[in-house]
Amino acid sequence: MNLATKDIRHNFGRFALTAVGIGMLLMVVMGMGGIYRGVVEDATLLIDRVGADLWIVQRNTRGPFAELSRVPPNLVFRAAAVPGVISSREFVYHTIQRERDGKPLRIAVLGLSWPTDKAEWVPLTAGRPLAQAHFEMIADRSLGLAVGEQIPLGKDTYTVVGTTSNMISSSGDGLAFLTVSDAQTIQFDVSGEAVRLERAAREARGREFELVIQQPALLENAGRPSQQLPAVARPQVSAVMVSLVPDADLNSVVDTISGWGDVSVFTREGQRELLLRGSVEKVRRQIGLFRVLLTVIAAIIMALILYTLTLDKIHSIALLKLIGAPNTTILGMIMQQALILGSVGFAIAWLVGQKLFPLFPRRVILADADLIQLAGIVLGISVLASLLGIWKAMKVSPNEALS
Amino acid sequence: MTVAESTTMAIEAVDLTRIYGSGNTEVVAMREATMTVRQGEVVALLGPSGAGKSTFLSAVGLINPPTSGQIRIRGQLVLDGETAHADLRSFRRRHIGFIFQKSNLIPFLTAAENIQIAMQLNGDSSGYARRRAVELMEYLGVADRADNFPSMLSGGQQQRIAVARALANRPSVILADEPTAALDGHRGRQVMELFARVAHEQGAGVIVVTHDHRALDVFDTIYEMEDGLLRQHTEHAAVLSSGSN
């Protein structure tokens, strides 16, 4: 006769409510783990999906995902000339915030090297990759944009030609894929008045130079658009992505590029590591510690619940002792109830989590390894939590049944 | 079986003394109490509150060992003072049945399960335990309530289930602590007669602590306890008449 299940069946309402409460608590623990996993996944998503073997970034910086990085666009050609490199691409990455339908819309803009990179590697949920050099974009579903929708960014309007799912930046903003030139246009967009003021400033600075005094026609040039002036550098890109031929010696290519004084180079793993140790690290630790705290709280609450359930049964336990029940029978009853409560709570957490977590603004990823680990923890805290009740039960004297 | 036919002792309690505390706070709850109960004998234990009846019952029930004195069950020395000569809990399970003032059934088990549990703890199979539980309930006239929880039974029905549980393992001794206190006179007498019946039919020694003098005629022997001292009433009729007064 299983006393644990008999007691549960008889007090099913109370047990069900307790299990739901424990389940909700475990769901929060599970959710924190999922958020933690989501942050890591989101942070490394681009690096993994882009599939570049090497990232060339501004010297002494940690790359565009960790901090501001600026490299000249012609670095693409330098990188392509290194033996072992099969292709190199420009990469532009920045975040903008605009208003749309009266609500703030944050977009992580990602510029792809047209025509080499048309975002064919991007997993689309609808639409198609980029098909022209300008005014097309692929947007993540989290931005709320559908295929065919148009969105004005700067002076131009862009049409959404494809959508993705769960393609978001490490800070949780939805990604928009455009060509590098469009991404730069959006990044360096300034108003007409600002352009006019800059031209006037250039002319004013020019007047102070001896050369301009000798050749006044130069002043007219200073007033022309900046892209027509050889002295003004072309807008820079965030990084250059390099792909190697299959049998290339990675270390040799890294050594070659590292020798250039204006850039730093990272392997895919290196960039990934930097990201996890850098911008994501504090979030990761914060969530991790919070998760530990929640697990401890769950253990304490479970212990108190099981202790209370045991207190409710003190008279029955005394009676069982009186009629000769061995300690193992009583211990087994409490321990089994703790394990059943923990297991049912875990199942409720998982089931409710499956429905609730997709509604969260950021991704909550329930990885199998994390679930198995949490199941182990739940079993552990169930056993630990039952110890308080067992201790109380062991102290009960059969005399209490006589009183 | 009758008392006269039975010569085997169900329980022998010899010179049981129980002292609580020490020095100035020492309290002698029971002093050299001696009682022998034959198989099939039904014994009443009378006495006012605080006389030491419960102390005596918990000592012979192997719950609280006496400070000194010996307890033998079916001839086997079980307790010599506070020294146990057997695993008390296991011995209790196999040889002693308890019945209380309140029925003391386990609330989350059905009537039948409350009886079965005593047998299953003793190692009997669930099938055998179920059959015997039904058999006992039929014997006690409560078979139709087998699958009811205690909260669905009347006081008398609960007490019968408690009696069935006490009988389940065919114990040598049945200890009942004011089993009729929660029942009216008629039902109280029925329970007392039941004890006498099962004691005689099943050969158990029964000790019943009671304040109820109305049913004393069903007992074979009457003891009285006062201030920790136990004495046997030799004149049964005198007690009966004092009760009726």
Strand fraction band of chain B?
A: 25-35%
What is the arithmetic mean of pLDDT of chain B?
83
Strand content bin of chain A: 15-25%
Q: Identify low-pLDDT runs of chain A.
A: none
- CA radius of gyration of chain B: 18 Å
Continuous helix count of chain A: 14
Structural class of chain A: alpha+beta
Q: Major sheet of chain A, described briefly?
A: 10 strands, mixed
Shape of chain B: globular
CATH architecture term of chain B:
3-Layer(aba) Sandwich
Say what oligomer this is. heterodimer
> Could you state the order of secondary-structure elements of chain B as H and E?
EEEHEEEHEHHHEHEEEH
SSE series of chain A: HHEHEEEEEEEHHHHEHEHHHHHH
- For the largest sheet of chain B, list the strands in their spatial order: 7-8-9-3-10-11
Main interface by residue count: A-B, 23 and 30 residues
Q: Using the coordinates shown, work out and report the CATH topology of chain B.
A: Rossmann fold
Q: Please tell me how large the radius of gyration of chain A is.
A: 31 Å
Category from helices, strands and their pairing of chain B: alpha/beta
Count every beta strand of chain B, where a strand is a DSSP E run of 2 or more residues.
Answer: 11
What do these coordinates show?
The complex is a heterodimer of chains A (403) and B (245). Chain A has helices at 3-10, 12-50, 75-80, 180-187, 192-207, 210-214, 217-222, 250-258, 268-277, 281-312, 314-322, 327-356, 368-395, 399-402, and strands at residues 54-58, 85-100, 103-112, 124-127, 136-140, 150-153, 156-164, 174-179, 239-244, 263-267. With 403 residues, chain A is α+β, with helices and mostly antiparallel strands. Chain A has 2 domains: 3-42 and 281-402, no CATH class; 72-188 and 235-261, no CATH class. In chain A, strands 1, 2, 3, 4, 5, 6, 7, 8, 9 and 10 form a 10-stranded mixed β-sheet that branches. In chain A, strand 6 (150-153) and strand 7 form a beta hairpin. In chain A, helix 2 (12-50) runs antiparallel to helix 13 (368-395) and helix 10 (281-312) packs parallel to helix 13 (368-395). Chain A is elongated. The model of chain A has no long low-confidence stretch (mean pLDDT 86). In chain B, helix 3 (111-121) packs across helix 4, helix 3 (111-121) packs parallel to helix 5 (155-167) and helix 5 packs parallel to helix 6. Chain B is globular. Chains A and B meet through helix 1, helix 11 and helix 14 of A and helix 1, helix 2 and helix 3 of B.
